[in-house]
Write a structure and sequence with these properties.
Layout lengths: L5 H23 L24 H13 L10 H24 L5 H32 L2 H28 L27 H16 L3 H20 L5 H22 L8
Helix pairs in contact: 1-3, 2-5, 3-8, 4-5, 4-6, 4-7, 5-6, 5-8, 6-7, 6-8, 7-8
């Protein structure tokens, strides 16, 4: 390590860390909106339908982007640890990519292929369940398909806005410095991971709809696999997938809690 460059890199990382701490407070607080002190869906809850899909998307986005207004003192119990871990991840991203993640073209390609397959499964799962629910007149499968798809679309909007806002370079650029706010990045920024955020958005709905221990283990293992393979493929830094996973889970969990029909719990 060149001692002359060290202070400049440390300053850059702390600037990046500050930006992500702010982002974590914004994105993370959408989880607080699942609490009972906020307005719930009308009682009795109506069935989730395709017709209501656009309206629900608008409601979701409004809730997500206005979530900072709902921060409460008790939310700091999980917001502070999330922000701290995110900051630590950003501070060690470059070292992880240079000294921990293998630089092997074949192995990296296999990881990328695996992440694409796993993400395809997580995105295709809700679509398949929607078709199954319609074919078999299964209300829970139908709702899971609709809410899973809704969470994925919500997650895609959040991910795209964050990419444009933070403009982070990918690991392959500039010796994995991972600089933020680089206009040359365009819409293909590294932060957060698209695959990871979409996979975890879907996973949160699937796991909440079918909450057995085995189902949760399988679903979250697949989502974790997406997160790990995006790093092992050298497509993203660890902090990219960390924030993508957290944001995706929060979005998916919010969509389920906001729109799930309680009467299906005994179905």
């Amino acid at each position: 390590m060149n001692p002359v460059k060290l202070p400049q890199r440390i300053v850059l990382r702390f600037k990046n860390t500050f930006a992500i701490l702010v982002m974590s407070a914004v994105a993370g607080t959408c989880g607080a909106q699942t609490q009972s002190n906020l307005p719930n869906a009308p009682e009795p809850q109506a069935d989730v339908t395709m017709k209501g899909f656009p309206k629900r998307l608008v409601q979701d986005q409004k809730a997500i982007w206005t979530s900072p207004a709902h921060i409460r003192i008790q939310d700091l119990d999980w917001l502070v640890p999330l922000a701290a871990v995110t900051g630590l991840a950003i501070a060690t991203d470059r070292d992880a990519m240079l000294h921990v993640v293998p630089i092997d073209a074949k192995q990296n390609k296999r990881s990328i292929d695996a992440s694409n397959v796993l993400t395809g499964g997580m995105v295709g799962g809700p679509v398949a369940l929607l078709g199954w629910g319609e074919l078999r007149n299964n209300p829970r499968a139908r709702e899971t398909g609709l809410l899973g798809t809704e969470a994925i679309v919500d997650g895609l909007v959040v991910e795209q806005v964050m990419k444009v806002a933070f403009l982070r370079e990918r690991p392959a650029i500039d010796n994995a410095n991972g600089k933020f706010f680089q206009t040359s990045v365009g819409i293909d920024g590294s932060f957060p991971s698209n695959h990871t955020l979409l996979a975890w958005s879907s996973a949160a709905v699937l796991a909440d709809e079918y909450p057995s221990m085995l189902n949760r283990l399988l679903i979250y293992s697949a989502a974790t696999g997406v997160s790990m393979t995006r790093v092992m493929g050298r497509e993203h830094f660890p902090s990219d997938v960390l924030v993508g996973s957290a944001a995706g889970w929060l979005v998916g969990h919010y969509v389920f809690r906001r729109h799930h029909k309680e009467s299906l719990d005994d179905y």
